[in-house]
Structure formats: C-alpha cells, structure tokens
What does this fold into?
Amino acid sequence: MSEHAMTRRSFLAGSAGVAAVAAAGGFMGFGAWQQAIAKEEEPPGRTEVVHTLCNACSSKCGYDAYVVDGKLTKLIADEAHPYAQGKICGRGYGYSQIAYSPDRLTDPLKRSADGSFEAISWDQALDEIGQKVREIVEKDGPQALAMVQDPRPSGKYYTKRFMNALGSPNVYTHGAACNLSKESGFTQAIGTGNFESDVERSKMTMFIGRSYADAIRPSSVAALQRAHENGAHIVLVDPRLSNSAAFADEWVPINPGTDLALILAMANVLIDQGLYDKAYVAANAVGFDEWAAAIAGLTPEWAAPITGIEASTIRRLATEFANAAPAASIEPSWRGAFGCSYRNSGETARALCLFNTLLGCWNQEGGALFTSGVSVGKLDPEKFPSTPKIEDAIIGSVEYPLALKSMGTNLYAAQMAKTGKIKGMFFYNSNMAAGYSNPAELASFLDRLKLMVVIDVQMSETAQLADYVLPECSFLERMELPEFVGGKTPVVTLRDQVLDVIHPNTLPSDQIFAKLAQACGVGEYFDFTVEELADAQLRTVGLSLEELREAGTIAFPEKAYSYGATPKWKTPTGKVQFASDACEKAGLPRCPVWMEPEVMPDARAGEFRLIGGKQAIHSHTQTANIEALMDITEEYGLDRAWINASVARDLGIEDGGLVVLHNELFDGPIRVKVTERLNPTAIYLPSHYGCSSKDQHTAYGVGLNVMDFVPFHIEPGYGGAMTQETVVKMQKAGE
Ligand SMILES: Nc1nc2c(c(=O)[nH]1)N[C@H]1C(S)=C(S)[C@@H](COP(=O)(O)OP(=O)(O)OC[C@H]3O[C@@H](n4cnc5c(=O)[nH]c(N)nc54)[C@H](O)[C@@H]3O)O[C@H]1N2
Ligand SMILES: Nc1nc2c(c(=O)[nH]1)N[C@H]1C(S)=C(S)[C@@H](COP(=O)(O)OP(=O)(O)OC[C@H]3O[C@@H](n4cnc5c(=O)[nH]c(N)nc54)[C@H](O)[C@@H]3O)O[C@H]1N2
Ligand code: SF4
Ligand SMILES: [Mo]
It folds into this structure.
C-alpha cells in the first residue's frame, strides 16, 4: 500500500460529475467524464491506496480506492485495466457506497415459521445447512443440488468447487437471463461463444440491440467515440433511439423481435448479387449452398413488412457492408436483442455469424476478432486436490442441448424444483427471483425446495424467499482470486481488500464456501487460504501475489493479438457451419431461416411489445437501493415507461401522465415519457426498477419490473428466458 494525498471533496466531485453526464443521457460531454484528480495538500490522517475491481457489473473494471483513516474517499480508474482504460462509470462510483449501506445484511438469517427472519449464529446456520445438504445427498443424490451464481473472481471458483466436491455438476450462471442464447447460437455457427468487433478501426459497424453508451463498459464507449471520430459508418438497429446515437450516424428503428429477418434479407442481397467473399466462404465454411437455397426467397421486399424497415434501406445497408468489407461487421451484441429475448434469439445469433462470414471479416483489421486470454496452469495436487470427477451432465443439458454447459439453463433447474428433482438450491451474487421471467411463478417453484440458501450483501427478492440468508462482506472488504481478462492484450488483475470488515458477522465468499464445505463433510477440498490459492495460481503464469498487489493489473504483451490469423473453427466440422446437425437434432432448422417470435403484438387490439434496456446509472436489480443513484432516477424521472408520440396522441396521454400497463400476468401504474425515439409497436420499460423487497428502503416500490409481465417459458433448444416474448396493453390511469 502506498501513501497518496486526497480529499473527500475530490471524490464527490468525480462521482457527481459522472452521474450527471450519465443521467442527462448524452455523451456529448464526454470530456466531463474525466476524473477529478486532486492536487491538494496532504489531508490529515493516513491515506492508503488499494487496487480493486468494481462489483457493479460483470465488467469488473479496475480502480485504485483511496482510504483515509479507514474510510473510502476517492476512486481513480486503472489505466491498465482493459475495460476501464482510465475511466469508470457512474455506477462504479455509486456502487462503492454499498459498503456503507444501512440496508446491508449483517448476520446470518433463518426464516421462521411465520415467514419473518431471525438472526442466528454462523455455527447454527452452518450446522443446519450442512445437515440438510447431507440429507439431500443421501436420499436423492448430489444431482438434487444446484447453484446459481453471477461469475465473480472468487465466486466462480468457490461455487463450482463446492458443488463439485459434493458431486453435483449443477452450477449455473445468470446466462439464461442474459446472453445464453446468443453465445450458444454463436457456438453452433463458429465454435466459440463470443468475438469482438474492431469497432474503432472499422469502416462500418452495425449494432443490433446493443448500446455502448447506456449498457456501459468504459472501453467500449471510448472505442465507439474513436470510431465515430474516424468516420466509421455506425448503424444502430434498435426499436429505441439509445444514447449511443451521440456516436452513430444512422438509426434503424426495427420492429422488436424481427432482427433475424433483417440479417437474412441482407444476406440474401449479398448472395443474390454475388457481393460476398466467395473465396473466404469456400475455404472456411460448410453448408453454404444449403443456406443460400434456404434463404433464396427472403428478399428485402419480404423482410420489409416484418421488420418495418423499407426494402431500399435493407438493400443499401447490405451493399454498404459489401463495400466496407472486410473492415466491417455486425457487432456481437450482448443481451438486448437476442441474448435471451425471443424464441428466435439463438437462431438470430447463428445468422449473425454467417453474415459476418459472408463479409470475410474474421480477424481482419476493422472486422470481427477472436482475441484470447491467459489461464491458470496446473496447481500442486496435494495442496489443491481435484474434486472427484462427475459423470452426470448438468441438469437441463438433455432438454436444452444447445445451451452452453458452462452457463446452463437455471430456469430449467428452477422448474425441476417444482417437480422435486431439485431439492436444494444455493444462490451466490444472484437475484434470480427478480431478474428472470415471471418472478411470481418462479417463487412458487422455489417454494417447493427443501433447502434454499442465498448469499448476498442485501435483502434481495431472492433472499426474501430463502430458508437461510448468509451475509457476505461487500466487495470492498475482501480480497479475491486474480481475474484473468482476455482481449487484444490479455491481463491479470486483482480485487484486493480496501476496507476493514465493517460488520463483524459478515464473511468473504472464500470463507463462506470453505465453512459450508466443512459443514457438508467435504472440507478437505478447501484446506487453503484465498491468498495461498491466488499466489499459486499466479505462479503458474510466472507472477506472484505480491507483484500483482503492487501493480494492480499486469499485462501479458507476449500474448498480444495480431490481425490476419485464420481462426481455428472449434465446431464439429472444423468450419463455419452454415448448416448444423446439432441444431437439427435439437428440433431446429439445419440452417437459420425465418422464425417468428412466439407472440406478436396486435396493434388493432391495443397491444404493444414490452421491451427493456439498461440505463447508464443502474445495473440490473442491484443498484436500485443505492441512494446516490436513485436520487438521479428521481430527479430525471428515469423510471418512466417510454411510449411513442403518435400512440400517446391516439390515446390522449401526455408526457408525464400516469398509465396502467397490464396483461394476463400483471398490472401496474407508471408515468410515461412521450417520445419520437421509440418504434410505435413497443413500450420500453427501463430494466432496473420495480423492487419488491421491503428491506431495500431506497429501491422498494419505485417503478415497474419488466419481468412481472413475462410468462415463464424457455427458448427451445437454447434455454434462454425469452424475456421479451410478451405483449401488454395500456390504459390511462383512472379510466
Ligand atoms: N429486472 C431485470 N432483470 C434482469 C436484468 C435487468 O437489468 N433487470 N438484467 C439481466 C442481465 S443482463 C443479467 S447479466 C442478469 C444479472 O442477474 P443477477 O446476477 O441476478 O444480477 P442482479 O439482479 O444485479 O443481482 C445481483 C445480486 O447480487 C447481490 N450482490 C451484490 N454484490 C454482492 C457481493 O459482493 N456478494 C454477494 N454475495 N452478493 C452480492 C446483489 O445484492 C443482488 O441481489 O439479470 C438479468 N435480468
Ligand atoms: N448501465 C448498465 N450497463 C451494463 C449493465 C447494466 O445493468 N447497466 N449490465 C451489463 C450486462 S451484464 C450486460 S448483459 C450488458 C447488456 O448490454 P446491451 O445488450 O447493450 O443492453 P440492453 O440495454 O439490454 O439492450 C440494448 C438495446 O437493445 C434494444 N432492444 C430491445 N429489444 C430489441 C429488439 O428486439 N431488437 C433490437 N434490435 N434491439 C432491441 C434496447 O432498446 C436497448 O437499447 O450491459 C452491461 N453493462
Ligand atoms: S462498467 Fe461501470 S459498473 Fe461495470 S464494472 Fe465498470 S465501472 Fe463498474
Ligand atoms: Mo448481462
């Protein structure tokens, strides 16, 4: 730890500035997104600076945390962290206050017969949980246990090790409500779950339902800004004109759920006009002729009424792509349009990869890149023994065979709680009960569990359903395992402990899982400290914990990416698969063709598709209880639903007016923002509101939760939550 000077004022200046820019929604004032680095006199008291990783979203950006006399005072983003690149976002600043939240969990809790929670000791909690886990394992086998976790540096290691030690393969990420369908669809086509568009150096990049300026990763925002300055043609395909508009030059306001038709029609133009890279396709692909035949009739004229985009626009975009190739791509997106939204999400992802293949853009400058990372090598088996090999496959992998096994579909696992096949579930850093389709139905499934354990820092909706709630200390109060980040230059980076533990009965995840393992009779797999493991992991890549602590982030320049390599297609055929046997086996078409969403809004019946989307100042359900961020929501009315101006006129609704949204699952009141920036077939609800946990005093009751309107259903083959397969009607309140 080194000594630096700082003041509290400078920290607040930085955070407020960022928040205001984010809230105003424009990144025009990008310059304001600079950090307030104080050049002031040495403050009284002892200042320490510790490198950590933000926990407000999965980007886990690095920053230096300044602590004066034990109190967090200032955050300075890490220049060397590949996602931060010297900037963190408003959520990063705001979420640091979780450490001091009055709504923090402070003790293990047990649900009483009347549904209330009582504080108990760790010993009691561990004894009782251990007892129940042993009973389940003895009676129903370890397959009856499941874990849901949102990957965190230590969490992803310890949750898996804990479950595997017990003999269960059922470790799920949040993917089914995020990017499971997308990554699984990509894998069918190109053999890997993701790629990176070289936006900054491209001549043309199309974003389909991805907004860098709202669903922020600082490095992406910066790359988009540079692309814009470099004159790249940036196209936003989105039913909503997002804040990325500041860096784009075209908005294509597509009907939600129809992106697959757009991609197919653009491909049809390239193939029909002979504008695709024939040599590239011949050398790299299988099944091309089959796909070309399958989409021969899917012209721009065919797609126009489906997508709401004029045929001439679709034709022009396809031609522009051909002219810009190979320095062009459709960006891989993340969640918005086809991460998990529709019945056709996996198929949209597949089609996207095939379209990029037509451009011959893989690994080309300005195209679509496969960068890689560094991973931990073999550890001493005496100190870190391997857990027993598990023969069983993760539950859901038979029913949803295309779902990536590294994520799995926890929706299916939860459904199996209803049938009794799953008896015990753990949730780590996950608020599944608020962030997935139909929370009410999900709660009824989870209610059947014999044991439900939630490890959180605050009383989430999921925690409210648990038998036991275990309090973790906040991310600022713990050190975690090294985080390896891939990219053009891979790095390893550290979340170190910034603050002393604030509530003495909270523990970090490594200790929680080691204690749980002990209580469940598998403690022998956890006979090491997190420091020992971190150091051992780092030594396999030629580093030590001491070095990483000192540096914060260390790059591996010898592993840096270079353009031009022919990708190794890790598909069963070793090629880009325009046709897939696995998809056919899963009951889907061999080649991606048009598949209509499960439901379409009927305008004559007054129906709209309900879409969601991120706001720059909030993350999922987890920041709504941060006062500083919710103040901004209130000041700008950010919880309002967006409706199109012509719709508002027809219904006689004014900007700021109160309406009721309803469908067969839910109804609730909400104020509206009347705007031209939305496709008239859609209503947009920002993703972060509608908290129903009364113990989150700031978040509770503000706005609506999109998920309350979504039926519980699972995308065939791919396992996603289909979070936008729903329509709603709208009424003026009081009518
Ligand atoms: N309503 C709604 N649903 C969504 C989304 C949305 O924006 N809105 N987004 C979707 C997307 S893209 C994703 S990736 C998923 C994410 O789904 P989740 O991973 O479930 O994300 P959150 O809803 O943010 O819930 C995270 C939970 O972790 C807790 N937590 C925070 N810090 C810590 C910690 O240090 N330790 C522990 N143990 N717990 C902690 C939070 O209090 C919260 O209860 O949700 C999806 N579902
Ligand atoms: N501020 C903020 N940033 C985040 C997060 C966060 O919670 N908050 N979470 C992080 C995580 S885990 C994720 S997964 C990413 C998500 O990153 P994104 O996928 O970019 O985020 P979203 O806001 O869900 O969706 C992006 C856009 O999709 C549009 N959209 C909705 N439906 C459709 C459709 O049918 N077709 C098309 N073409 N567009 C559609 C929405 O209007 C929205 O503007 O963000 C990451 N960054
Ligand atoms: S993008 Fe923002 S919220 Fe996400 S990790 Fe980085 S600073 Fe934190
Ligand atoms: Mo996500």
Q: What stands out?
A: The longest strand covers residues 667-675. Residues 54, 56-57, 59-61, 88-89, 91-92, 216-218, 619 surround iron/sulfur cluster (ligand 3) (CB under 6 Å). The domain at 603-732 is CATH 2.40.40.20 (Barwin-like endoglucanases).
